[in-house]
Amino acid sequence: MKYTMLAFFLFISSELSANNYLVPITPFDNLYNQVVFDSLIGETQYELFMITKESFSPETAIIIEEGNALNSEKKWYLKEVTAKAMIWKWKKINENESVVDLKKTNNVLVKKKEIDREKYENIINAWQTAVKLTRYPEKMNFGLDGTTYQFCSSQYMCGETWSPEEGLAYDLVQLGNLLSSILKSNKSESEEKLAKANKIANKLLKAP
């Protein structure tokens, strides 16, 4: 699977910021998005996820997922999946030309821990609220170097933003980052960060 230099320019230039809100997307509307989804999310029974795509770092996803039921008891997990190397890769085909070679990878790092879903209910509801409020911006803000964030809920509603600095999109990114931090923290630190996450969730639930 290959993109030319021109296709690379057009793809990167299409990344935009929707001011305070997420831009609606259809999962997933181009080859790169699809390959990242297949590599990091795949068949996961997700309640929500945030995919992070930085310009010069491997792609990563933070996920709340439903695990396989044992003895009719559902289990829920907070999980982070990170590609060990960037999925967006250049491949040199001759001295003067390179192409992008996009392929699904199983070469990923996975961190995962069981959670009490009730403690995350507020966050899940806020996530769903935020992606329902996706809209196209009055002004398109294009960028090259930066970070693209993509969000989806279990209701198959999705939106994205590019390096937000304020507003609903910024708050949602901070919420996703807190989930990642909770996963890597000990029990007492996790409770403190979960409280911060719920404050952001409460703010998102009141979003116009």
Distance between the termini: 42 Å
The major pleated sheet works out as: 7 strands, antiparallel
Helix content: 25-40%
β-strand percent reads 25-35%
Mean pLDDT: 86
Helix/sheet category? alpha+beta
Number of structural domains: 1
**Nearest-angstrom radius of gyration?**
18 Å
Helix-strand string: EHEEHEEEEEEHEEEHH
Please work out how many helical segments DSSP would assign: 5
Number of strands: 12
Which overall shape is indicated by the principal axes computed on the Cα atoms?
A: globular
Unreliable parts: 1-18
Biggest sheet strand order reads: 3-12-11-4-5-6-9
Task: Describe, in short, the structure shown.
With 208 residues, the chain is α+β, with helices and mostly antiparallel strands. The chain has 5 helices and 12 strands.
Kindly describe this structure.
Helix 3 runs parallel beside helix 5 (187-205) and helix 4 (167-183) packs antiparallel against helix 5. The protein is of the alpha+beta class. Helices cover 34% and strands 30% of the residues. It has one domain. It has helices spanning 5-13, 31-40, 117-132, 167-183, 187-205; strands at residues 2-3, 16-17, 23-24, 46-54, 60-66, 76-83, 90-94, 97-101, 108-115, 141-142, 147-153, 158-162. The protein contains 5 helices and 12 strands. Strand 4 (46-54) and strand 5 (60-66) form a beta hairpin. The strands form 3 sheets. It has a 7-stranded antiparallel β-sheet, sandwiched between helices. The N and C termini lie far apart (42 Å). The chain is globular, with a radius of gyration of 18 Å. The model is unreliable at 1-18 (pLDDT under 50).
